């Protein structure tokens, strides 16, 4: 029976909302305590119900809600009754004033979709707000998801300015702070909420918004896990998602009508603190006001999916809609296949969010016959009963906070089910729920559970958390005695709409975060609460209990149409684990039902830093379909090997670095070093080939915030694959181990991906500004790709990458001014050697460090990168290999345009009958990168110094009348000793230009320009010559022919025309073994060598 004191509280005219309407200067927490603290019952037990019949009990519950014209069903009242009874112990446990707990409303929209779709609706609601917005979330992390919301705040401010109004916005999130031991709710100043990790808009960007932010946490474990919004006290959004980029399928519902007043009250109580500016709608309740979407209820169900597709609303291309019908049409339209596209492809594209853009789908097109529909406008319906069943946060490290409305509602729903229970939750291990679920099965109820495979397994293995989903599933099935009982327990692992098997959450590619329980197809609980230990005992959660068979049926249909869990996700009743229907294997990453004696220690581990995981996902799951990328990779392969041939032919200094460390050593099945007779282990082989590729500075280049040479990665790739191929004879294509087939096709794929990894990091991350040489990125890309080639698991590849970041890194001092030495010619070889070594160390069983980047104080970010995280302009793809600059002259890349410009100016000068002696000065306008790297004054001490001096190469071009050659940098060269050239260097002025620098960094333009103006002693001037795209740049039409000439010219240093023709044909043969190609470059094999 409802305790009398609870009955009286539900009938009181006083609520937190009404008190604040009378005096908005009060702190909501103090009002809440003042109204209800006197009713607190320390005993914590409900009054006995001896002699009370069921009808009287439910009648009392009926009288404790504001149901309007509706009449709750018996099942709803049973659950509501039990939730209300918990208020006897603590009226504040429900985080809502008791008179608001039971109400009614409509539910016009349900969203079951990846997180960005939920944020799009949040953004539209914010943009359409008139007076106020409340937003509560657990995590808020700057991301694409948060940018959708912050863009909407800017749009709201703009619209409010046009109306001449100001909108009050209040936001709560949970970011743990030691000060919360004394004050659970901390005001967040603008400096903090505009910081890099949050990036809410500063006040001057949103002048027509009054923004106040609070950080709320109740130590130790009392997390603010709530995720809801209230807009203008007319709309409530209740969702499963935080605001951070992730791979989750999430759920959001939109509620309108009197129930919004309950959410509003909860928002005020959660806020707790005094308002800087009170909410304008404190005296304007939702009850009595028409629901904003009432007109939408006339839209026939499914009409939202009709009509033309509209442009997608993104962070960079914003499209705000006027109502939910247009929103639904816009979002659902993105799931329509493009002409000629398989039906699964748009689903994959939609599920591939910023954190995992390269996951591929394997579901057959027939699975899309019932299409995924992210936005579902509800069928027309009248207002129906609803109730808030929340729980307050509990920080103490114990399980004493169990008697709350949320927990009672979950238990009561299970205990009163007669036919069916449907559950979808990330984790299900709350101990008090398990036996009631078993009892439901035993009494004939069909219990269906959709659980996420491996969701936060590490956390669930910690002491007192009760274990993983696989462990719980096994326990539940093992507790049932008969096959008939086990047939009524139906546990599934989440399978995404474009997949045919579950993917473990550790890979962050397809996870599910929905929290939903439906009982007998007519009563449901939806919201924030998981069915796990943390949600059951500690976190603040907001949930809605609804009484509508229509909505329950719509929810079940939407859940099943937007995922393939029912089709493919069933676990085995024998052990509670999912098994592949063909191999019988559990999914990769699964730890099964017995994680081991020290499983709690696994729970102490952390996931790998996101950049490490992103590289690994790209390597293992990105399918290269662009034929132009493979064409570019073939050119890159030939150009790079031709550079190695040139170095072997022309540089005795480089040849001195080659060969085994112990002279005469021959490695059986070793790597055959091109253009030599050496056969080496893959580690020394990577070094030696790296020397040959790079020593003369003639290999390709790519600019960005960091300069670099992606072709350096071929050294590690080719040495490893050739060694693997020879070690696997006589059948290299099917060599032992899980590494990819050792063919030219695989070699090209490896090269494309190494280029891309290095290229993406170069664009926005200036390692040189912090004194670290750019070959750190060669080590990164090579180590990652070599791990994949070796057949390491994804976890091992992440470990290898972590070793790259914890490694020592070379200082770029050997490239600067008087310190420039020839180390710059073998630094990339050293990086490739380290990369192979680290991958082999991990293959031998060594672990990695998941937090190697972000750990404080010794993570890479803090130790080596100024405390900043990496920035990326785009997701990994194939852009780099298609846009790299192939150098057709041995000049540092930033100086090539200046040399070309000087040669044009020299032709003009000669036509005027003038010479170098007539030149007073030359002004070179160029990029900041060129100014930083190759602008040198004073003496030049060696070849490495000269080829990295823009004044030297420009003066050389003027005096010589043609492009520099490698021999022009040598100490014995006449040009190195030329006093005329030295004097001309002093007359060359280098000016860093902002526009050229901006175009250099622009991914669309990606120029590498320089402009030259020549001033004569008589005062005349040769007009400026600007070269933006020198020969070798993909945008220069003369590049293709020049690159081919370079390749042929270098190969002729060693090979005959016939042998070169065989090499060119081999590179086009995707199925050829890599070792066969390498044999063609090895001098002991090639009988036609000219060396």
TrEMBL record:
Organism: Petromyces alliaceus (Aspergillus alliaceus)
Occurrences of domain PLD phosphodiesterase (ranges): 220-247, 508-535
GO cellular component terms attached to this protein's record: mitochondrion
Compositionally biased intervals (Polar residues): 345-368
Source species, domain of life: Eukaryota
Stretches the record annotates as Disordered: 285-306, 332-369
Official protein name in the record: PLD phosphodiesterase domain-containing protein
PANTHER family xref list: 2-METHYLCITRATE DEHYDRATASE-RELATED, DEHYDRATASE (PRPD), PUTATIVE-RELATED
InterPro entries reported for this sequence: MmgE/PrpD_sf (IPR036148), MmgE/PrpD_sf_1 (IPR042183), MmgE/PrpD_sf_2 (IPR042188), MmgE_PrpD (IPR005656), MmgE_PrpD_C (IPR045337), MmgE_PrpD_N (IPR045336), PLD-like_dom (IPR025202), PLipase_D/transphosphatidylase (IPR001736)
Family: Belongs to the PrpD family.
One Pfam family this sequence matches: MmgE_PrpD_C
Signal peptide (from-to): none
GO molecular function: lyase activity
SMART domains, per database record: PLDc (SM00155)
């Amino acid at each position: 029976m409802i305790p009398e004191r609870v009955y009286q509280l539900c009938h009181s005219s006083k609520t937190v909302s009404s008190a604040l309407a009378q005096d908005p200067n009060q702190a909501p927490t103090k009002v809440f305590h003042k109204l209800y603290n006197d009713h607190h019952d320390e005993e914590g037990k409900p009054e006995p119900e001896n002699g009370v019949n069921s009808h009287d009990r439910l009648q009392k519950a009926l009288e404790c809600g504001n149901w309007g014209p509706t009449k709750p069903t018996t099942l709803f009242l049973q659950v509501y009754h039990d939730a209300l009874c918990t208020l006897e112990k603590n009226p504040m446990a429900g985080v809502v004033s008791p008179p608001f707990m039971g109400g009614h409303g409509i539910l016009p929209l349900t969203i079951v979709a990846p997180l960005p779709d939920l944020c799009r609706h949040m953004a539209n609601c914010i943009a359409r707000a008139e007076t106020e917005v409340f937003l509560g979330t657990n995590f808020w992390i700057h991301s694409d998801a948060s940018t959708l919301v912050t863009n909407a705040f800017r749009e709201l401010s703009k619209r409010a300015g046009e109306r001449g109004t100001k909108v009050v916005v209040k936001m709560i999130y949970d970011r743990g702070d030691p000060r919360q031991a004394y004050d659970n709710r901390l005001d967040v100043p603008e400096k903090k909420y505009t910081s890099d990790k949050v990036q809410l808009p500063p006040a001057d960007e949103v002048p027509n918004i009054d923004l106040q932010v609070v950080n709320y946490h109740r130590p130790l474990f009392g997390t603010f896990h709530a995720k809801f919004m209230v807009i203008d006290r007319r709309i409530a959004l209740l969702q499963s998602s935080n605001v951070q980029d992730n791979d989750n399928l999430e759920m959001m519902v939109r509620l309108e009508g009197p129930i919004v007043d309950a959410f509003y009250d909860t928002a005020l109580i959660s806020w707790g603190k005094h308002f800087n500016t009170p909410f304008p709608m404190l005296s304007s309740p939702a009850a009595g006001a028409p629901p904003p979407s009432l007109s939408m209820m006339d839209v026939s169900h499914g009409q939202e999916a009709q009509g033309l597709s509209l442009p997608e609303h993104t962070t960079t291309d914003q499209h705000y809609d006027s109502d939910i019908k247009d929103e639904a049409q816009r979002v659902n339209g993105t799931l329509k296949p493009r002409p000629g596209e398989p039906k699964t492809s748009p689903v994959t594209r939609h599920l591939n969010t910023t954190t995992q853009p390269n996951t591929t789908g394997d579901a057959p097109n027939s699975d899309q016959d019932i299409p995924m529909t992210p936005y579902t406008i509800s069928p027309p319906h009248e207002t129906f009963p609803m109730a808030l069943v929340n729980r307050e946060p509990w920080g103490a490290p114990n399980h004493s906070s169990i008697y709350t409305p949320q927990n009672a509602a979950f238990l009561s729903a299970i205990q009163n089910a007669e036919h069916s229970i449907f559950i979808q939750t990330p984790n299900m291990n709350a101990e008090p729920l398990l036996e009631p679920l078993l009892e439901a099965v035993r009494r004939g109820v069909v219990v269906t559970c959709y659980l996420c495979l491996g969701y936060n397994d590490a956390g669930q293995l910690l002491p007192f958390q009760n274990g993983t989903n696989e462990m719980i599933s096994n326990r539940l099935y093992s507790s049932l005695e008969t096959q008939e009982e086990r047939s009524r327990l139906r546990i599934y692992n989440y399978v995404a709409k474009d997949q045919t098997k579950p993917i473990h959450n550790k890979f962050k590619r397809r996870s599910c975060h929905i929290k939903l329980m439906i009982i007998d197809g007519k009563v449901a609980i939806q919201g924030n609460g998981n069915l796990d230990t943390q949600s059951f005992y500690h976190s603040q959660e907001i949930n809605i209990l609804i009484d509508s068979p229509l909505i329950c049926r719509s929810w079940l249909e939407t859940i099943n149409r937007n995922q393939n869990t029912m089709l493919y996700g069933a676990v085995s009743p024998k052990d509670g684990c999912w098994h592949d229907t063909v191999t019988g294997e559990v999914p990769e990453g699964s730890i099964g039902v017995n994680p081991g004696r020290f499983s709690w220690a696994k729970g102490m581990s952390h996931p790998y830093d996101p950049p490490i995981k992103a590289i690994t996902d790209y390597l293992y799951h990105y399918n290269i379909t662009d034929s132009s990328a493979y064409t570019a990779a073939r050119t890159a392969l030939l150009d790079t090997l031709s550079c190695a041939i040139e170095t072997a032919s022309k540089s005795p200094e480089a040849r001195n670095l080659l060969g085994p460390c112990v002279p005469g050593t021959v490695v059986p099945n070793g790597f055959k070093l091109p253009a030599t007779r050496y056969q080496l282990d893959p580690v020394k082989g990577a070094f030696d080939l790296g020397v040959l590729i790079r020593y003369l500075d003639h290999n390709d280049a790519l600019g960005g915030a960091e300069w670099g040479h992606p072709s350096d990665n071929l050294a590690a790739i080719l040495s490893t694959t050739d060694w693997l191929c020879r070690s696997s004879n006589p059948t290299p294509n099917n060599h032992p181990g899980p590494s990819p087939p050792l063919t030219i096709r695989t070699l090209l794929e490896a090269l494309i991906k190494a280029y891309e990894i290095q290229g993406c990091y170069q664009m926005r991350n200036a390692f040189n500004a912090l004194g670290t040489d750019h070959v750190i990125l060669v080590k990164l890309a090579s180590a990652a790709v070599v791990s994949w080639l070796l057949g390491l698991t994804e976890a091992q590849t992440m470990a290898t990458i972590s070793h790259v970041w914890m490694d020592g890194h070379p200082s770029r001092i050997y490239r600067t001014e008087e310190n420039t030495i020839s180390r710059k010619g073998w630094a990339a070889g050293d990086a490739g050697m380290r990369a192979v070594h680290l991958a082999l160390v991990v293959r031998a069983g060594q672990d990695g460090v998941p937090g190697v980047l972000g750990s404080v104080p010794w993570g890479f970010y803090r130790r080596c990168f100024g405390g900043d995280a990496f920035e990326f302009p785009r997701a990994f793809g194939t852009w780099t290999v298609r846009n790299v600059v192939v150098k057709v002259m041995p000049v540092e890349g930033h100086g090539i345009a200046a040399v070309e410009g000087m040669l044009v100016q020299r032709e003009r000068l000669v036509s005027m009958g003038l010479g170098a002696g007539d030149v007073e000065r030359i002004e070179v306008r160029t990029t900041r990168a060129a100014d930083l790297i190759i602008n040198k004054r004073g003496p030049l001490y060696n070849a490495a110094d000269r080829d990295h001096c823009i004044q030297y190469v420009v003066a050389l071009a003027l005096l010589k009348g043609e492009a520099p050659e490698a021999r022009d940098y040598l100490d014995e060269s006449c040009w190195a000793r030329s006093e005329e050239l030295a004097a001309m260097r002093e007359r060359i002025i280098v000016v860093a230009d902002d526009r050229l620098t901006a175009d250099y960094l622009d991914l669309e333009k990606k120029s590498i320009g320089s402009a030259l103006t020549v001033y004569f002693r008589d005062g005349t001037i040769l007009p400026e010559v600007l070269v933006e795209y020198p020969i070798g740049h993909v945008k220069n039409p003369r590049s293709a022919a020049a690159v081919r000439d370079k390749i042929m010219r270098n190969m002729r240093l060693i090979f005959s025309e016939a042998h070169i023709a065989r090499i060119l044909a081999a590179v086009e043969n995707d199925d050829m073994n890599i070792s066969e190609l390498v044999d063609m470059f090895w001098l002991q094999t090639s009988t036609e060598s000219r060396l």
